[in-house]
Specification:
The complex is a heterodimer of chains A (114) and B (115). Chain A is 0% helix and 55% strand. The relative contact order of chain A is 0.34. The mean pLDDT of chain A is 92. With 114 residues, chain A is an all-beta fold. Chain A contains no helices and 11 strands. Chain B is 0% helix and 50% strand. Chain B has no helices and 11 strands. In chain B, strands 2, 4, 5, 6, 9, 10 and 11 form a 7-stranded mixed β-sheet that branches. Chain B has a 4-stranded antiparallel β-sheet with strand order 1-3-8-7, with no helix packed on it. Classes of the chains: A mainly beta (114), B mainly beta (115). At the A-B interface, strand 4, strand 5 and strand 10 of A face strand 5 and strand 10 of B.
Chain lengths: 114, 115
């Protein structure tokens, strides 16, 4: 099955700086890569996703890049704000037919220091 | 609010007991997924149902079982509970239609504490 590795596990940045979180996946047939943000005590919420036919996607201060050859994808947050502090999870969609199962990384705890 | 509901919000029980967690998916969603999130751990996929049928199985213990009913709500049954089963259990739903990328929407979770 799919295996997703996520780094770093914790990340502290000064407000206004950029943050980068990286993930690698093992199944070359995976074709969908979402990123979820989970604030303390709350549900994970999708913040951005990318499909395997796209190399980069941007939404305001958030961007995701995908390198299919190297099987890695990254989340970039620019001009970080205190409300960006949360745990971020990357995921890859399993290629099993009709499953749509997501395999998640172990998460990155981002702390934005005012 | 994602549209996915879970009950109960909190559950405290003793070792050896059995509990049932309930999930109602978003209106129109056919797929339901169950995840376990332990302290400082990521989201561990347990099981997926699609329109009443089991579609995929992850790291689900034999003591755990699930089902999806005709009205598409799902229940996760946890039996012979152990201290290590204490965790946050999330349900997620997606449209599940063929050919789509199927964003998963998460419910608020059920926090299970086994004493």
């Amino acid at each position: 099955g799919e295996n997703v590795e996520q780094h770093p596990s914790t990340l502290s940045v000064q407000e206004g700086d950029s943050a980068v979180i990286k993930c690698t996946y093992s199944d070359s047939a995976s074709n969908y890569f979402p990123w979820y943000k989970q604030e303390l005590g709350k549900r994970p919420q999708l913040i951005i996703d990318i499909r395997s036919n796209v190399g980069e996607k941007k939404d305001q201060r958030i961007a995701v890049t995908l390198n299919k050859t190297a099987k890695h994808f990254s989340l970039h947050i620019t001009e970080t704000q205190p409300e960006d502090s949360a745990v971020y999870f990357c995921a890859a969609r399993d290629s099993g037919a009709g499953s749509y199962q997501l395999t998640f990384g172990k998460g990155t705890k981002l702390s934005v220091i005012p | 609010d994602s549209g996915v509901t879970q009950t109960p919000k909190h559950l405290i029980t003793a070792t050896g007991q059995r509990v049932t967690l309930r999930c109602s998916p978003r209106s129109g969603d056919l797929s339901v997924y169950w995840y376990q999130q332990s302290l400082d751990q990521g989201l561990q996929f347990l099981i997926q149902y699609y329109n009443g049928e089991e579609r995929a199985k992850g790291n689900i213990l034999e003591r755990f079982s699930a089902q999806q009913f005709p009205d598409l709500h799902s229940e996760l049954n946890l039996s012979s509970l152990e201290l290590g089963d204490s965790a946050l259990y999330f349900c997620a739903s997606s449209a599940g239609t063929s050919g789509s990328y199927n964003e998963q929407f998460f419910g608020p979770g059920t926090r299970l504490t086994v004493l």
